[in-house]
Prior knowledge:
The structure holds two protein chains of two kinds.
Chain A: H1 2-17, H2 20-43, H3 49-77, H4 79-84, H5 90-109, H6 114-122, H7 127-154, H8 158-174, H9 184-193, H10 195-203, H11 209-232
Helix pairs in contact in A: 1-5, 2-3, 3-5, 3-7, 3-8, 3-10, 5-7, 5-11, 7-8, 7-10, 7-11, 10-11
Chain B: E1 2-11, E2 14-24, E3 29-33, H1 40-47, E4 55-60, E5 63-64, H2 69-75, E6 76-79, H3 91-101, H4 106-120, H5 135-146, E7 153-157, H6 165-179, E8 183-188, H7 191-197, E9 200-205, E10 208-213, H8 215-221, E11 226-233, H9 237-244, E12 250-259, E13 262-269, H10 276-284, E14 289-296, H11 300-307
Parallel strand pairs in B: 3-8, 3-9, 6-7, 7-8
Antiparallel strand pairs in B: 1-2, 1-4, 4-5, 9-10, 11-13, 11-14, 12-13
Helix pairs in contact in B: 3-4, 4-5
Amino acid sequence: MRQVTHIFRKEFNAYFVSPIAYIVISIFLLVTGWFFFATFFLFNQASLRTFYALLPVVFAFVIPAITMRLISEELNVGSDEILLTMPVTALDVILGKFLASLAMVVAMLIPTFAYPLTVSLMGQMDWGPVLGGYVGAILLGAAFSAIGLFSSALTRNQIIAFIIGLAICFALTLIDKLLYFLPRSLLGVFAYLGADFHFQNIAKGIIDSRDILYFVSVCFIGLYAAHLALRAKQ
Amino acid sequence: MIQVENLTKYYHTLCAVDQINFNIEKGEILGLLGPNGAGKTTTLRMLTGYLQPSSGNIRVKGLSIDKHTLEIKKILGYLPESAPLYHDMLVFDYLNYVAAIRKINGNQKMARIRHLADLCGINEVMHQPIGELSKGYKQRVGLAHAMMNDPEVLILDEPTSGLDPNQIVEIRKIIKEIGQQKTIILSTHILSEAEATCDRIVIISQGKIVADGSAENLKQSTGGKNLMKLSVQNTDFKTVQEALSDIPGLDDITRVSETDGLLNVNLNYSSTADLRPEVYRRIKETDWVLLEFHQETQSLENIFRELTKEN
């Protein structure tokens, strides 16, 4: 576990040493802030519903950008050879990098606390869905980080890693919006596969074990696939 | 210290390393020589646990690498070819990170980093980003990384590749210094480097070991032509031929030059036996004035070319 901590620290610091963290956080706040407040006054409701409706799509773009360099850069530079010949396992590497990207997602979400605080000044806020939404956002961020890490482990080209990650995250976000085209018998399965479907459940303030299990499962599958992809290079 | 048994590595259908066997003793500096694509780097990567062998086994201090990978990694230090480091990190931060991974704690950590900075000559670049360093300095940082845990076995993949002559001399000096206490495995295709730094040389070609021994032994044991040079006065070429041509094992005698009474001849032979005593005895029986008499063993370049010519 100590090795995971060292790798986590190194990767998390790397985000803030380079301009990546500042650019990603700025773009995230700009996009979510703009779309949230553009329609906020039209609804005349003190809730973060618009923000949470938008979040999975924004995450589907932003999180693969955060994770794309994590392994593919190591493969491209060859530093994976240095890392994996020190006394660490491939699992330590995957977990350390996953936690770093998740911490980056949390760092990205922290400034958005300004939204509920601002909104609460304008009207009576129901804090249950707000907190549920943040829990859901962290779970969604974790699931997308695991997928991003997997796509980063597939290739040494960061752009390709980003596109693969984006495609998978986007597919999971939109899958429950495309149910019209599917046979009735498959509706339940495809609705269950949708990340947005589970996220919106939690964002209502209802923390259901099925939704948590979904995000934990996506995390596990993503991390296990990333682990296999990294091991396959050996 | 290290036993390599029937080590084989396939990349899909390409056999990069083909059933190689060798042992390395404690405190030995072993040079792994071979042309490009011979399988040197693949062998080293398997020795470090980075690549898994397709078959065969590696034992380090009696521990099998497939079962005790982590334990073996703890006693190994490895510098990959062209030192692929994290370019956006400062040298100090990088060494600090490596020390943490190597589980070197607080006080010891700073002392160790300082010692390595002195040994590898990187004190002046400790607070520079690795990406801005020259190739020579990157190589030194890579060496410091490899030696962080004071490893019992140090594996260096082409440590002087791409360096200028001054940097090569400096890196070799560091390797020699470390080699007094450590077991070192060094891959290179620079023959003079192997000859200058290694106790033993293993030549690999097309994934197979084609020679194994000290540079001197390799020169003597290969089946190529050997040469003895003779400079004499007070005789002529015909007399020399008559006196020496029936020495068992001697193939032929060639005249190099004959000027002002000084005769230079080459005695060519392929025998592995030492012909010098017999040649000397024959000369002693004559009244020739012997000015020069020495045996020239094959150069390592010739042996290397001979053994790897299929490439």
